[in-house]
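re: ur question from yesterday

yeah so i grabbed the chain u mentioned. its 218 aa long if i counted rite. heres the sequnce exactly as i have it in my notes:
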Amino acid sequence: MNASTTASSMPATWSRRAVLATAALAASMAMTGPVLAQAQLDQPAPAFSAATADGKTVTLDSYKGKTVVLEWTNHECPYVKKHYGSGNIPALQKEATAQGVVWLQVISSAPGQQGNVDGPTAIKLNKDRGAAPTQVLLDPSGQIGKSYGAQTSPHLFIVNPQGVLVYKGGIDSIATAKVDDIAKADPYVKTALSELAAGKKVTHASTKPYGCSIKYGS
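ran it thru and got these structure tokens back, copy pasting raw so excuse formatting
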């Protein structure tokens, strides 16, 4: 191959490579879906106004001065069933709210998607499971979930009394749907709440959430 042949063929090669790289990037983006915003630790938690299961409207600002837990949930998810069927999350809710913590369940499943329920159904589910959140927030548009970057059910966030996000991640350290693993796991959320109550900084402020993907709409 002479110099002139090499010079003329290289641009075509580069062009083909560029096309292939662009196609691969597009395919990757299509598979991963929309990129969600990520609420930032040690920054003000994203504000919201939400309809509740009992027909009220609440805002995050209305809970200023209190520790707030936001728990994304989907009652049909096996990982959620693990923590509710075992009584783990209901026990955490009762323990936390008894100490003045506000516990907000958030349902971001879109209409027609797994886990989407109306207010009365959400209330009945909690009654049947012995759950005790302060409120259930209905987020069928996914606006609140996306503003926090909620990825899974369960996925939990903790906001301190000053309105600053101090924890985001999994409920514990063992990412399975097996009830037996709860006792062996590091209980991230329970520990974080205990540290906050003691005036300490949360040791594991960002952990990996696990569970079912949140069923956002398009």
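noticed a couple things. The two ends are 52 Å apart (CA to CA). also The chain has two domains: 1-33, 49-213.
anyway ttyl
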